[in-house]
Design goal:
Strand content of chain A: 15-25%
Helix content of chain A: 25-40%
Mean pLDDT of chain B: 87
Largest sheet of chain B: none
Structural class of chain A: alpha/beta
Radius of gyration of chain B: 23 Å
Low-confidence stretches of chain B: none
Shape of chain A: globular
Mean pLDDT of chain A: 88
Oligomer: heterodimer
Structural class of chain B: mainly alpha
Order of helices and strands of chain B: HHHHHHHHHH
Order of helices and strands of chain A: EEEHEEEHHHEHEHEEH
Shape of chain B: globular
Number of domains of chain B: 2
Number of domains of chain A: 2
CATH superfamily of the largest domain in chain A: P-loop containing nucleotide triphosphate hydrolases
Radius of gyration of chain A: 18 Å
CATH architecture of the largest domain in chain B: Orthogonal Bundle
CATH topology of the largest domain in chain A: Rossmann fold
């Protein structure tokens, strides 16, 4: 066991909809600077779990702690990024990034200064005053990342943020995300259904079961940091992907049958 | 010849061709005399209406009726639309009758307006208001009902208050459909006001058209129709330009 306290701790989280158990007894700890991925078959409740942690969905039972303090609703120390396009089409890049600070009543100059830093960090220089309609899918997700990071959250929750992108853009953005994470020491909890993505990015991969979602296993990904997407070519990468797939295969088949019912 | 000039030439050619056919039929006396006066005569009459200033008080009356009605239509349409969009229960009750009534000609209400509001300004304003209300309320309702839930989640996740969420996220995200509704709305508000003037009135563009018709001053009637058409086209053009500016970010 580690001696430091976890940034995020969830204890026995369950979520039941009438007649359906979505998540069952989810327990997980995420430590400072860690990148943890949750992977599971579709419909296993991984997004539900993330929205519960973010305080966007009420839980049936269990507890969420940030640095040892219980949290029950949305909290400024928890940032979240969604798979769907979430940046506001009526705001420019920089105005999107300033959104959260503006809602918190941060003065305009400070807002602009912090947003400018984020523009540099995520590599959107030159696109500050563009509207989302003029940006590619990958750039839009960079804006979403900057908008969440500017709030300086203790932990960043990411719900399949690159799910709507093509494979090559996804890999490159993943590499970018790791660089950003390294630069600011961000703690990240990442949800995905993509095994390659989980292995490319994570320190640990948490495998969930088919519905009701339980935690089946945790795999350590012991690639050194900083790392680039070149690790994809290594034998170890293939071995880890294979290992996770063997854990997931059974669950995916179950999930498939559940979906057909 | 590029993609812009070619349609423009066809447009000009069509108008010119139409005018030629008009003149030929008019001169041939195939129709009753005076039904198609010569275009020169019509333009002369139109010029007289403008030069003597005869048209302007009437144009202003129509403009005031239509715009006052349009302001009422916009306020009610947007308010009711947001209420219906946000509340599925209210929407289930009120959306079907609104859709049915939107498809009926609003002129059937005019006798009621005349009785309650009199034959002057107010009854035409009411016609304009009730006409403009429907496209605005329908567009607003649809937009408000289909608002992107993710936007609301983003606002919640950064701790925005309900008021902030409403003014900073909810309203801007339905603004464009509201403007589209208003663009349609101002057109039918104008139609409503002029329809009212054509039936019962003592001023306005519709009034002078029907007046010229009653006295069989056909060239003057066409002149007023032409000027009314130009006025409507200008209103439409202004709304299109405003909307194009809004579209920048959509």
């Amino acid at each position: 066991m580690r001696s430091v306290a976890p940034i995020l701790e969830i204890r026995n989280i369950s979520k039941t909809y009438p007649g359906v158990a979505a998540v069952e007894n989810g327990s997980l700890e995420v430590y400072s600077h860690e990148f943890v991925s949750i992977i599971g078959p579709s419909g296993c409740g991984k997004s539900t779990l993330l929205e519960i942690i973010a305080g966007l969905l009420p839980k049936t039972s269990g507890e969420v702690f940030i640095k040892g303090h219980a949290v029950n609703h949305t909290h400024s120390s928890i940032g979240i990024i969604f798979q769907q396009e979430s940046i506001f089409p009526w705001r420019t890049t920089i105005e999107n990034i300033e959104f959260g600070l503006q809602m918190q009543g941060v003065p305009k100059e400070e807002r602009r200064r912090k947003a400018d830093k984020m523009i540099e960090l995520v590599g959107l220089h030159g696109f500050e005053h563009r509207y989302p309609g003029e940006l590619s899918g990958g750039m839009k997700q960079r804006v979403a990342i900057a908008r969440a990071l500017v709030m300086e959250p203790e932990i960043l929750l990411m719900d399949e943020p690159f799910g709507a992108l093509d494979e090559q853009t996804r890999i490159i953005l993943g590499e970018e995300l790791l660089r950003i994470q390294q630069e600011i020491g961000q703690t990240i909890l990442f949800v995905t259904h993509n095994i390659n993505e989980a292995v490319q990015l994570s320190d640990r991969v948490v495998v969930m079961t088919a519905r009701p979602g339980r935690i089946k296993a945790t795999i350590d990904i012991d690639f050194e940091r900083p790392r680039t997407s070149e690790i994809i070519a290594s034998e170890k990468f293939g071995r880890l992907v294979g290992q996770i797939w063997l854990l997931l295969r059974e669950e995916s088949l179950k999930g498939f049958k559940l979906a057909r019912q | 010849m590029n993609r812009i000039t070619k349609p423009l030439l066809v447009q000009i050619g069509t108008v010119f061709g139409f005018m030629v056919i008009w003149e030929i039929i008019g001169e041939s006396k195939l129709l009753f005399e005076g039904i198609l006066p010569s275009i020169v005569e019509i333009v002369k009459a139109a010029w007289t209406q403008v030069a003597t200033g005869f048209i302007f008080p009437h144009l202003l009356v129509t403009f005031y009726e239509a715009s006052a009605g349009f302001v009422i239509a916009s306020f009610l349409g947007v308010t009711v639309g947001i209420l219906l969009g946000a509340n599925p229960f209210l929407r289930n009750i009120f959306e079907p009758p609104i859709l049915y009534f939107a498809a009926t000609p609003k002129i059937i209400l005019y006798p009621i307006f005349l009785m309650i509001l009199g034959t002057k300004f107010e009854s035409k304003m009411a016609m304009a208001a009730v006409s403009g209300f429907f496209p605005i309320v329908i567009n607003t309702t649809i937009a408000a009902a289909n608002i992107n839930r993710i936007f609301i989640k983003v606002a919640k996740s950064v701790g925005a208050s309900s008021l902030q969420t409403f003014t900073r996220v909810y309203l801007p995200s339905i603004l464009l459909p509201i403007f589209t509704g208003m663009r349609l709305g101002i057109g039918v508000s104008l139609v409503g006001a002029i329809l009212g003037e054509l039936k019962v009135s003592n001023a306005g563009l519709g009034f002078i058209i029907v007046q010229a018709f009653n006295y069989f001053r056909i060239a003057e009637m066409y002149a007023s129709i032409l000027l009314t058409f130009l006025f409507a086209a200008i209103v439409n053009l202004v709304m299109t330009l405003v909307l194009a500016r809004m579209r920048r970010f959509a």
